[in-house]
Amino acid sequence: MNIELRVNGEPRELEVWEGESLLFALRERLGLPGSKNACEQGECGSCSVMLDGKLVCSCLVLAAQAQGHDVVTVEGLAEDGNLHRVQEAFAETGAVQCGFCTPGFVVATADLLARNADPSEDELREALSGNLCRCTGYAKIFDAVRLAASR
Amino acid sequence: MSAPAREVVLGRIGEVSRRSDAVPKVTGEFAYSSDLHAAGMLWGHTVRSPQAHARIVGIDTSRALTMPGVHAVLTHDDVPGEKLYGLEFRDQPVLAIDRVRYFGEPVALVAAEHPEQARRAAEQVRVEYELLEPIVDPERATEQAPLHPDRPTMGRGYRDDERPNVVRSLVIRHGDPDARGDVSVSGVYDVGIQDQAFLGPESGLAVPDGEGGVDVYVATQWLHVDRDQGAPCLGVAPGQVRIRLAGVGGAFGGREDLSMQIHGSMLALHTNRPVKIVYSREESFVGHIHRHPARILSEHRATREGRLVCVRVRVLLDGGAYASSSTAVTSNAASFACGPYKVDNALVESLCVYTNNPPCGAMRGFGAVQSCFAHEAQMDKLAAALDIDPVELRLLNALESGDVMPTGQVIAGKLPVAEVIRRCAALTPPEPEELPRDPLRLPGGSGNTTRGEGVRRGVGFAVGFKNIGYSEGFDDYTAARVRLHRTADGELSAEVHCAAAEVGQGVANVILQTARTELETEDVVLAAATTSAVGSAGSASASRMTWMAAGAVQLACRDALAEHRRTGSDVDLERTYRHPRTTPLDPETGQVTGERAHVAYACAAMRVVAEVDVELGLTRVVWIGTVQDVGRAVNPSAVEGQIEGGTAQGLGLALMEEIQTRDGLITNASFTDYLIPTTLDMPPVASELVEDAEPDAPYGVKGVGEPPTVVSTAAVVSALRAATGRELARVPVRPDDIVGL
After folding, report:
1. Distance in angstroms (rounded) separating the CA atoms of residues B19 and B276
2. Which of B17, B247, B288, B452 has its C-alpha lying 20 to 30 A from B584's C-alpha?
3. CATH number at residue A107
């Protein structure tokens, strides 16, 4: 089937199989592999994208459900060639190791800071508890969130 | 397809340097092994055994072959060369032949145009199984029919043990194993099966070269050993298999063994099309090896003053269906069984057996994690029996350089056990938090289970240590190649080739920092890692890669610079670095046969504050303080990251992580049911480094990846014991263990 949607501000039209997730369509059909396939069952947050301004796991959304909607992925966060402040903070603080969780954390953090400019320790832990990281133990990710919030 | 971009970043040895891959990783541009794409690409899928132990009566692929989009369905008959492979012992079929030995064992392969077509065709591969009784109790494995009648690990210089299903049996006798003390404490400790649970699933892209060879873009820990295992099975020369490192989404030991490398290559060579394979999370859980579950029986005998007199330990490891790296894990569990303490008399028996449980192999800490959990529980028990402060007891017995290990090895390098203990004990934990408070900061968290009535606070302490590098006579080396030239404006410019796997630990920066330091130029680039441009780097394992890569790159840079100065012309040379030689253990006594069985050791101490709801069995780790012996920190920020992340994995084993099985079948192969620590589970980790340069290592470095994982499981459970007063002799600790049901 054919669907039309906006991805990172651009109108896109593509053919998908009815059972494909939005994650699969982004990664394999639109050349946007930044959203990651760590669990594909909504447990790890690595595929986080914004769907009409709401944070979702793109593995749990069918591509067909995104028909007519607006999707922003990690690839769409940088503006005019400049890293988003959250991306900059993650790179600076050492919040990235293997980096497989990073796109999901970056999207989720950007969403958090858009809703709450100065989250408390508890608020940021709660807000990011749907994103798993296996490398960092989260300490430097929290540093990155605080640094981004301070800017 | 593309390999991950690597770019120049600034920083020399000892300086905080931003990861060279940080920017592509935060923008989503970094190409992981599951992100690759090639024109005309097919999708591969693996048909796996639903049984833990069965005879294969027949495999019928005819229906699957007729399914839409299917280009190939392959079985063991289609393996072009050797039918068996293995990391150390060739005991594992590329595809099951006449028998399956574990749940999830690969039986057939499918290639199709769409991954869903491949999955559906895989469901139509009809495999007729005749069920066999699975061996699931490691205690009974040596009395049951052999799973590998040809005994693949025998005749390799290990102790002769004629019993069936023995992978390795090792006995270390030291001093007088019957020596008696004034007091004795004993315990039986159990460790569940832990999974590496790296986030990037096993995946890769195999591209046929049209001349019978194949390029494999894959996430791995050791490119050359993948090549050397794969080529004989594919029936081609090693040079015809070019392993190229794709972006690695974490490893932790779980990528030492092969996943899709041979399977993808078989499909690619058969179809003459690029083939991509990406495991699902469920497949990842059943498709790779795990940390060995263990049962450890320990007895510690000591004087009234607390000096250890004799330690007696029996370790039983369940290796699962295939050997993988189990023989080395068996040895490590034995080497570290007595802890980082002076022990003049010891008897350590370590046994690993084949079963039909999930295969086990390398995971961060590699045998030392299991041993540390047991020896630290014993030290706490001994401290209680003697009414001595647990920290003082550890200090009294702390190993130091020049001391003798139970294997007879004299510790030649640095091992500042007393210093890490003293400094860690001096770290100040936070004051107890007042009640009432937000439920998020209580055990049970946002589940809002308590207002704090049954919550008790406990402070725990543990010390652990582990070897760095490969041991027991293994020829452990790393190659590096340096190309030097002068740019038009007279500046020195270098390209470094090294096949060291960047798995997230930061070895790419180590290589760049080393080259910049040696060449005194910022103009250094690191080429993509591949088997076709440079010799083997060995494995990104055993906390060895920083030491070994720094050693190789230092050597190559120094020689390249000298040659350039002598000749004034461009240089392209390769050098191989070896760490000090090790020798095997005597198969009968477990004693060293040369100067050392292990190259070097690193230690860490950890203090943990936990709160436990003793009525509901819920826990919250409040704070962790740790001091680690690192030799020298090449990139201090990356070292901190290793400590924090390694600590989280040990906390996971202490509190929540366990692969559950029923008759050998894994029942929780998902992140819904296999839990790893989240942002709400990890406390702040205060870490300090002891930088005492290791004499035989480049720049005095040691490895840093494993000690935090070794010690943190033991330290967290020590805190839970302090809070509950219970023995808690099993990890992960379950709510019913805490409540005492």
Report:
1. 28
2. B288
3. 1.10.150.120
- CB-closest option in A91, A129, A138 to B22: A91
Closest residue on chain A to B671 (Cα): A43
What is the ipTM, given to two decimal places? Answer: 0.99
Chain A residues touching residue B278 (CB < 8 angstroms)? 37
Q: Does domain B138-193+298-368 have CATH number 2.60.120.10?
A: no
- Chain A segment 21-60 residues within 8 A of B by beta carbon are 27-28, 31-41, 43-44, 46
Q: Tokens for B309?
A: 């007199």
- Taking alpha carbons only, the member of B334, B339, B427, B425 closest to residue B381 is B339
Q: Of the residues A33, A59, A76, which one is the last residue of a structural domain?
A: A76
Yes or no, beta carbons of A94 and B671 under 8 Å apart: no
A68 in contact with B at a CB cutoff of 8 Å?
no
The 8-class DSSP code of residue B358 comes to P
**B512 within 8 A of B495, measured Cβ to Cβ:** no
Structural domain containing residue A101: 85-150
Q: Are B258 and B224 in contact (CB under 8 A)?
A: no
Instruction: Indicate yes or no: CB of B645 within 8 angstroms of CB of A97.
Output: yes
Of A37, A39, A102, the CB nearest to B671: A39
- Gap between the Cα atoms of B226 and B237, Å rounded: 13
Residues of B in Cβ contact (< 8 Å) with A91: 18-19, 22-23, 25-26
Asked if B735 has any chain A CB less than 8 Å from its own CB, the reply is no
B228-276 tens-digit pLDDT: 999 999 999 999 999 999 999 999 999 999 999 999 999 999 999 999 9
Interface of B with A in 432-451 (CB under 8 A): 438, 440-441, 446
Whether residue A6 is found in the same domain as residue A71: yes
- Residue with structure tokens 């299991």? B370
CATH 3.30.365.10 fits B22-26+477-578, yes or no: yes
Rounded Cα distance between B165 and B350, Å, is 14
CA atoms of B603 and B464, how far apart (whole Å):
6
pLDDT, one tens digit per residue, over A46-88 is 999 999 999 999 999 999 999 999 999 999 999 888 999 999 9
Class of CATH domain B42-132+201-248+255-287:
alpha beta
A40 lies in the same domain as A90: no
Chain B positions in Cβ-Cβ contact with residue A92 (cut-off 8 Å): 18
For strands B477-486 and B455-468, give the pairing: unpaired
Report B:294-333 residues touching A (Cβ under 8 A). none
Q: Does A71 lie in the same domain as A7?
A: yes
- What residues in B contact A20, CB-CB < 8 Å? 116
| Span B560-616, pLDDT tens digits | 999 999 999 999 999 999 999 999 999 999 999 999 999 999 999 999 999 999 999
Q: Which of A43, A76, A109 is where one domain is finished? A: A76
Question: Chain B window 262-291: which residues touch A at a Cβ cutoff of 8 Å?
Answer: 278, 280-281
Please tell me whether residues A99 and A68 are part of one structural domain.
no
- Residue A63 and residue A34 share a domain: yes
- B36: helix, coil or strand? coil
* CB within 8 Å of chain B, chain A residues 105-134: 106, 122, 124-126, 128-134
- Centroid of chain to Cα B66: 42
The Cα of B572 is separated from the nearest Cα of chain A by a number of Å equal to 31
Q: Which helix (H) or strand (E) holds B686?
A: strand B685-690
Q: Which CATH architecture has domain B394-467+599-739?
A: 2-Layer Sandwich (3.30)
Q: How does pLDDT run across B645-676, given as a tens digit for each residue?
A: 999 999 999 999 999 999 999 999 999 999 99
C-alpha closest to that of B717 among B658, B661, B656, B670: B656
Using the predicted structure, report yes or no on whether residue B478 has a pLDDT greater than 90: yes
Q: Which residue of B has its CA nearest to A47?
A: B28
